[in-house]
Specification:
570 residues, alpha+beta, five-stranded antiparallel beta sheet, 14% strand
Length: 570
């Protein structure tokens, strides 16, 4: 009976031991998995702790070696061993210097909260971007700190599980005499885990406290920035509505002006409206986003005074633009003449900007007489209206100008018939322009003192040393003077060539090969051979007779048949 009882007890003991062994093996497997998870997590908190532990181990090892070295130096003369210990001590001290910062400030890098500084103040729409960027950086800091806190919580959770399992295994192996070494190993591990949990637990408490304060500060800054951003957005919408309203009003005014003004005046009016429109928008933006406008006005005042002296021409051009636009002396499309330093330019105004006039150089009498080229774009600074002659051929809607054609006839010509021919041809081609000019002048009497205005075509005769000069004056379109001048000149030539009693005086040269071959058919006299300097005059002509001499008919040495009037130059 006793044997049966003993066998039963032995059986149950073996079964219980087997179960405990299986449980211990399962715990060891779980412990291995925890160690593997901790190792693979690459946790920065674990690295910090290992650095702190390394510092402590190195410090203890240095103290031990220093103590041993002190004992050896006082009791033995083994120089080699002493040198070996000194070398080891020096190496350990260098290693200690590398991890010294971790001992002085444990977990400092992970517990440190960055200062919230340089907080932007959102005062205009441009700074909205910097505001959102600052909020994004704050959120990034917060996410990083929360991630570090999660890593620490996870590490502590694994360490506590490892501690509980190691404690269970230590108790288990302590009850087995053959496993006393393993039990001691787990007990040592428990002591190390306890130190690690205490160290990391203290860091966890500090981290939670600092995070609560820091996250509250972040929320306050974010709320403040988001409020300022909303305020700027509403402000920007209000300003945009005001600007759109100004633009719509300007467009309405432009459309209304098109009904009452011609194209050239509309262009100038649009320029003025655009300038005022931009100025209003600039003023709105200036007063909306500048905090100290008075200070700015003072600075701009002093700066403008200096710039006005240093950049006089620039400011005078801007002032000239106001004079041109508001005074109405020049409009886009007008034909103008500019004389500067002897250079003469005639063309049509293409644009009137704040700083300069832009004209297109057309083919005119000036091109024919002086420049010998046309088609250029000429830029004229606006300040020339104060210092230079600027002639407008189409001011106040007058589209015509006086143009003149001069030609010279000999003294024995029928000058009355020449005057009549010139006058009739001039009236023929300028009659329509004369009527247009007369109507325009009637309208301008309210603005200008226009009295005794004779607009009819006129011809004059003047005595010149080389003949009688006929001067024809007539009204012509300002943009087509050269064409009409050519037409009238050709017809005058055709009519005069048909008249026997009218001779055009002009300069010419011919070779005289025999006596009597001259104007007036004066016979060749023998005494001319003896006096080669003798000369005879007929109809203002000069004869120089000699063998193969030159004969010059110089009835009009000073002027071509049709001398253009240079005073107009269009």
């Amino acid at each position: 009976m006793k044997a049966v009882i003993f066998l039963c007890v032995l059986f149950f003991a073996s079964v219980s031991f087997g179960q405990n062994a299986a449980e211990a093996q399962a715990l060891e497997s779980k412990l291995a998995r925890i160690d593997q998870a901790i190792a693979q997590s690459n946790n920065p908190w674990l690295k910090q702790y290992e650095n702190i532990k390394t510092y402590g181990d190195l410090s203890e090892e240095i103290e031990r070696i220093e103590s041993e070295l002190s004992t050896l130096e006082s009791h033995t003369k083994d120089i080699s061993q002493i040198n070996q210990l000194k070398s080891s001590l020096q190496t350990l001290k260098k290693q200690l210097e590398l991890v010294e910062s971790y001992a002085k400030n444990p977990y400092d890098q992970l517990l440190d909260t960055p200062d919230i500084k340089d907080i932007p103040h959102i005062t205009n729409p441009i700074l909205i971007v910097s505001g959102y960027s600052f909020i994004k950086n704050l959120q990034s800091y917060q996410n990083t700190m929360e991630h570090n806190q999660k890593l620490l919580d996870s590490l502590l959770e694994n360490l506590e599980q490892k501690y509980d399992i190691s404690q269970t295994l230590a108790v288990h192996y302590r009850s087995i005499q053959s496993e006393s070494a393993k039990a001691k190993e787990y007990e040592t591990q428990l002591l190390e885990l306890k130190k690690m949990i205490q160290s990391l637990g203290s860091a966890q408490k500090i981290l939670k406290t600092s995070h609560e304060i820091y996250f509250k500060n972040i929320d306050d800054v974010k709320n403040s920035l988001e409020g300022e951003i909303k305020e700027q957005v509403f402000k920007m919408i209000s300003i945009a509505i005001a600007i759109v309203a100004i633009i719509l009003i300007a467009l309405s005014i432009k459309l209304a002006l098109r009904k009452y003004l011609d194209d050239n005046r509309v262009y100038t009016a649009n320029k003025v409206i655009n300038f005022l429109n931009i100025s209003l928008v600039a003023i709105i933006l200036l007063f909306a986003y500048l905090e100290n406008v008075t200070y700015l006005v003072a600075i701009v005042g002093f700066a403008s005074a200096g710039l006005a002296i240093a950049m006089k021409d620039l400011f005078m051009s801007v002032l000239g633009w106001f004079v041109i636009v508001l005074g109405g002396s020049v409009h886009v499309g007008d034909r103008v003449k500019v004389i500067k330093d002897g250079a003469v330019y005639v063309g049509d105004v293409l644009d009137i900007s704040v700083l300069r006039l832009t004209i297109y150089e057309d083919i005119t009498l000036t091109s024919y007489m002086e420049n010998r080229r046309a088609g250029r774009i000429i830029f004229i600074p606006n300040n020339y209206v104060f210092t230079t002659l600027l002639a407008n051929y189409t001011h106040a809607g007058i589209k015509t100008v006086w143009d003149g054609i001069d030609f010279t006839i000999t003294f024995d010509s029928n000058y009355k018939k020449a005057l009549k021919i010139a006058t009739e041809i001039g009236k023929k081609y300028s009659k329509g322009y004369t009527e247009v000019t007369r109507k325009r002048m009637e309208r301008l009497k309210d603005r200008f003192s226009l009295r005794n205005m004779n607009l009819e075509t006129r011809a004059f005769c003047m005595l010149e040393p080389n003949g009688i000069r006929i001067s024809l004056w007539y009204q012509v379109n300002s943009y087509a003077t050269l064409t009409l001048r050519s037409t009238i000149s050709a017809e005058i030539i055709e009519h005069i060539l048909q008249e026997d009693d009218i001779h055009i005086a002009y300069q010419t040269t011919k070779v005289v090969t025999k006596g009597g071959d001259g104007i007036g058919n004066k016979p060749f006299m023998p005494e001319d051979l003896q006096n080669p300097n003798a000369h005879h005059t007929s109809h203002s002509s000069h004869h120089n007779h000699a063998s193969h001499a030159h004969h010059t008919h110089n009835a009009s040495p000073k002027a071509p048949p049709f001398a253009p009037n240079k005073e107009d130059g269009i």
